[in-house]
Amino acid sequence: MASARNSGRRRTAASGHGFVATCVRVAALLLLLWVAGFLLFLLKLPGPAADRTTTEAVVVLTGGPGRVARGVEVLRANLARRLLISGVDRQVRPAELRDAAEIPPELFDCCIDLGFEAETTRANAREVADWVRAHGFLSVRLVTASYHIPRARAELEAQLPADVVVVADGVDAGLPLLAMLMEYTKFQAAWLMLRVRPV
């Protein structure tokens, strides 16, 4: 009788150890996949669009240096017809932004729109998509930091009609490794959310 009880305890303990070992292996595999995905994310970060690439429109997502200047450069080179700067702080006056970015008044008045509603990447995508649809554009150049392009593009393409072409134009913006890990995690979360709960 005692022998049977001891045998039962040993089987239960072995079963428990097997479950824990399986959980550890699964966790290790998930971690390995996450690290591999992060390395791939770093290797595939998009740079600037190819020289002389043209689109009907160009959009800039605010939040870092060089982005607005890049969008204005594209517009001045006649590589796009109109520019939207999305996510402008509501306290910023248009003339202040124009002067700070050294945009010629005639270019600013004719061809540049400001979006003041977006405070997140998803809101940027919504603001940009509404603007693209309002103007009937079928191609748009997306200007933001290179590390931000994957998440911004995923959010934007989820909001746009399927026939609108998005061209990535990444602005170099070096980040510490920890910040890059954070952005990669945000990208993964956005990717998963768009599949679980599409826009």
Characterization of this structure:
The structure is a single chain. By secondary structure, the chain is α/β, with parallel strands linked by helices. The chain has two domains: about 1-45; about 55-195, Rossmann fold, CATH 3.40.50.620. Helices cover about 55% and strands about 15% of the residues. It has seven helices and five strands; from the N terminus they run H-E-H-E-H-H-E-H-E-H-E-H. Helix 6 (about 150-160) links the parallel strand 4 (about 140-145) and strand 5. The model has no long low-confidence stretch (mean pLDDT about 85).
List strands and helices in order, with pairings.
Layout: H1 2-43, E1 57-61, H2 67-76, E2 82-86, H3 94-100, H4 105-111, E3 112-115, H5 121-135, E4 139-145, H6 149-159, E5 165-171, H7 177-196
Parallel strand pairs: 1-2, 1-4, 2-3, 4-5
What tags apply to this protein structure?
56% helix; 7 helices; 5-stranded parallel beta sheet; elongated; 2 domains; 199 residues; alpha/beta; single chain; Rossmann fold
Q: Helix tally?
A: 7
Order of H and E elements? HEHEHHEHEHEH
Given the C-alpha coordinates, what overall shape results? elongated
CATH architecture of the largest domain: 3-Layer(aba) Sandwich
In the CATH hierarchy, what is the class of the largest domain? Alpha Beta
Low-confidence regions: none
- Sheet/helix structural class: alpha/beta
Q: Which percent band covers the strand fraction? A: 5-15%
- How is the biggest beta sheet arranged? 5 strands, parallel
Number of strands: 5
In the CATH scheme, what's the topology name of the largest domain? Rossmann fold
Write out the CATH superfamily name of the largest domain: HUPs
Cα-atom radius of gyration: 24 Å
Arrangement of strands in the largest sheet: 3-2-1-4-5
